Structures are given as structure tokens and as C-alpha cells.
Amino acid sequence: MSDLSLTVLGSATPYAEPGNPCSGYLVSSGETHVWLDAGSGTLGELRRHTSLDRLSAIWISHLHADHCADLLTAYYGLRYAEIDLAEPIPLYGPPGIAGRLAGFLTNGPHRSPVEEAFAVHELSDGFSTGIGPMTFTAAAVEHGMPAFAVRVEAGAAALAYSGDSAPCPGLVELAENCDALLCEADGPTVSEVHHTPEEAGETAGSRGRTG
């Protein structure tokens, strides 16, 4: 995937482990960098590679804390640290994400101004947007709550990320003919909200491309 690079910031669940934060990734194409899921501990790892004010966008698959909790500390960084933010960072996430952040951040009679740090865009099934040279396309997946897989394309390269999801047709369709599928796998027990390792292999094998 010469047109795309993927950096794993963390993959632990349901809480961070020593040396391994929760789910979070950095997807880049040239000088365009997108923080893909912001699980606990991933902000520190992100800063090894880039700074908050150099991000082109943040994309959140769903609102479980192990995929979005570091948005809270990112907000403090963007508002109060030595960051010269020209404009709010585009934040793509499930419906209600701004209210969820405000609920955590508000400590008095006035709602915290989350929109001063984040330009919020709510995801829906089939939502698509360009971010620099990359195109991001969302697909609703099965996780017992609003959750979205994403396909990232740049030039001839294509990457799909499941977020947390049970096996479902929407994910297989989104990942069709992609170069790589980043697919979560929880444990050995079949559930309605996660892949088992075996199911992740089956989903990967269904995407129409080997490798």
C-alpha cells in the first residue's frame, strides 16, 4: 500500500495494557494524517509520530471508551496546551458524539465548547468524504450500538477497518477487493457483537483478494 501507511498505536481491549494502549491507529498518505479511533493511551503514542495540530482529521468507529476515551485529553490539549490551532479539527463519529463529549467535559452550568476544538461530522451508513488525498467511506456494522467500519482509499491502495463488529454483510461489502483488512477479534466465544479469530479469518477471506 505505497499510497497509504498504517501505524498501530494500540490494540488492547477492554483496557490498556503496559506497552499497549487501547484501540487506535494512524492512517497517513503523504502529509495527511488521520487518527483512527482514540482509545485510552493512544494520544501519547500518536505524539511519537505527529502532533495534534498536524492532524487532518479524527475518525471514531463507535463510542465505547476503549475506542474514544482519549478524545477527552485531546480536547484539553487542543484548548489549553501550546498548540496553535488554526481551526477546529474535523471529527467524524457516530451520531451523538458531540453531546457525549460535552457530557464528560462539562463541569459547571455552561456546556463545554467542544466545537471550538472539534468540527463534528456525524457518520451514517454509506457516508463518504475526502480528507486530503484519501477517501473515507463508512458502513454500519453489527455491534449492538451505532458502529461503523471504514474503507480508506488513496491512489491505488485501499484499507478497510472493522472497528468492533460481529461478522456482517456490510463489512464484507465494504472490504471487497481491499489490499488489507484490519479486523478486530475478541475471544474464542462466538458473540453477536465481536468477531472470534476464526470469524475474522473468514471475513478476511471473503473480501475478494488474497494477501
UniProtKB/TrEMBL annotation:
Source organism, top-level taxon: Bacteria
Domain (Metallo-beta-lactamase) ranges: 34-204
InterPro entries the UniProt entry points to: Metallo-B-lactamas (IPR001279), RibonucZ/Hydroxyglut_hydro (IPR036866)
Location of region: Disordered: 190-211
Signal peptide region: none
PANTHER family noted in UniProt: METALLO-HYDROLASE YHFI-RELATED, ZINC PHOSPHODIESTERASE ELAC PROTEIN 1
Protein name per the record: Ribonuclease BN (tRNA processing enzyme)
